[in-house]
């Protein structure tokens, strides 16, 4: 058994695991009840799933130039996925797309309402207070 | 902004300051360039360096106000815990997605953070968002408060467990990146003090009694 065969077996296992995670993410997007739950499924298992798939591909192709590019894909995925998730969640929350009645606990809505009241009070006094609004 | 970069200083002075403080950005851009071209050659490295310095000259981002220092052991610990969290949580969320007939009950939890600055807040948020099951929906930087959405409150162990988990992550981030002064300001002693050990042991035990007094004073919120 040579090293190429070992690398191929490891690559196959990694790719199968990655494919499973991406499949689960797809099922979660279809199945979870609200926007935020779907966003979890859409952004999260996919991160590890993609990293596993890329590692598998890297082990299979035996080429350093390809490995470098796969590494870049993984790095930029890790850098951008949290920002994308945050923007979707925040935009959904602020435009009322999140059904807060489905939440078991919601500590953001009261704080936002309090901040809006404070901002309103400030506006009455004609003073701009940027920090009253949670952002 | 440090006194070395007065707004009225000339373009040339600002450029030299930027080169002093942001040369690593140019280095990183060079590495990206070389990786994209798929091979290390003299031409690639030179062209990448040129492009990198050109970019930070004409399209510079503001400098990050970083006064800490990187501790390699603590950084490795942060990375190790992150990989563990990522693996455990990915598998957990996958099985939750495939558990038909079961509906997650999400929650948005308020997590007041230590007052330590934007950089550590950002790093903690990014790492939290990368781990499945938790997403930051709002970050209020002036009060240093994160609002974390968890996929299922029950399997996360309740709101206090979520807060505790994020505070531990923040502590690991600070121990990996912050300066001694910032650590002291955040109420964290040097590595290996009794406080840290007690919290680490509690963290390993995993289960947090919701009725128990909070670990950090910031948690004592109604």
UniProtKB/TrEMBL annotation, chain A:
GO molecular function: sodium:proton antiporter activity
Domain of life (superkingdom): Bacteria
Sequence intervals crossing the membrane: 12-33, 45-63, 69-88
Keywords assigned: Membrane, Transmembrane, Transmembrane helix
Region described as Disordered: spans on this chain: 113-135
Family recorded in the similarity comment: Belongs to the CPA3 antiporters (TC 2.A.63) subunit G family.
PANTHER family reported in the protein's UniProt record: ANTIPORTER SUBUNIT MNHG2-RELATED (PTHR34703)
UniProt-recorded name of the protein: Multisubunit sodium/proton antiporter MrpG subunit
Organism: Sediminihabitans luteus
UniProtKB/TrEMBL annotation, chain B:
Disordered, as annotated region: 203-222
Pfam families the record matches: MNHE
Membrane topology: Multi-pass membrane protein
Primary subcellular site in the record, as a coarse category: membrane
Cited InterPro entries: Cation_antiport_E
GO cellular-component term (any): plasma membrane
Signal peptide positions (record): none
Keywords, sorted A to Z: Cell membrane, Membrane, Transmembrane, Transmembrane helix
Transmembrane annotation, as ranges: 21-39, 45-64
Cell location: Cell membrane
GO MF term list: monoatomic cation transmembrane transporter activity
The name this protein goes by in its record: Multisubunit sodium/proton antiporter MrpE subunit
């Amino acid at each position: 058994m040579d090293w190429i065969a070992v690398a191929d077996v490891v690559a196959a296992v990694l790719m199968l695991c990655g494919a499973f995670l991406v499949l689960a993410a797809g099922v979660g997007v279809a199945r979870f009840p609200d926007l935020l739950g779907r966003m979890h499924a859409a952004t999260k298992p996919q991160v590890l799933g993609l990293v596993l798939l890329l590692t598998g591909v890297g082990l299979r192709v035996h080429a350093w130039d390809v490995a470098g590019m796969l590494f870049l894909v993984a790095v930029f995925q890790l850098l951008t996925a949290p920002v994308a998730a945050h923007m979707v969640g925040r935009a959904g929350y602020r435009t009322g797309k999140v059904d807060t009645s489905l939440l078991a606990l919601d500590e953001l809505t009261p704080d936002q309402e309090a901040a809006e009241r404070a901002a309103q009070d400030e506006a009455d006094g004609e003073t701009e207070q940027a920090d009253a609004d949670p952002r | 902004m440090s006194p070395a970069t007065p707004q009225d200083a000339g373009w040339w002075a600002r450029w030299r300051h930027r080169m002093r403080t942001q040369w690593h950005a140019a280095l990183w851009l060079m590495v990206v360039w070389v990786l994209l071209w798929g091979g290390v050659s003299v031409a690639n490295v030179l062209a990448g360096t040129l492009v990198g310095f050109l970019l930070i000259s004409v399209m510079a981002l503001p400098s990050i106000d970083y006064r800490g220092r990187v501790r390699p052991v603590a950084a490795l610990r942060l990375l190790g815990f992150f990989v563990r969290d990522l693996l455990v949580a990915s598998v957990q969320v996958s099985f939750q997605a495939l558990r038909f007939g079961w509906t997650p009950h999400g929650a948005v939890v308020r997590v007041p953070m230590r007052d330590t600055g934007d950089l550590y807040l950002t790093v903690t948020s990014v790492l939290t968002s990368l781990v499945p099951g938790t997403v930051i929906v709002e970050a209020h930087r002036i009060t240093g408060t994160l609002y974390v959405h968890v996929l299922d409150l029950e399997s996360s162990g309740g709101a206090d467990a979520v807060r505790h988990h994020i505070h531990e992550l923040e502590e690991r981030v600070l121990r990996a990146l912050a300066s001694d002064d910032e650590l002291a300001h955040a109420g964290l002693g040097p590595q290996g003090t009794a406080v840290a050990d007690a919290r680490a042991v509690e963290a390993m035990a995993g289960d947090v009694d919701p009725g128990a007094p909070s670990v950090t004073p910031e948690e004592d919120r109604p």
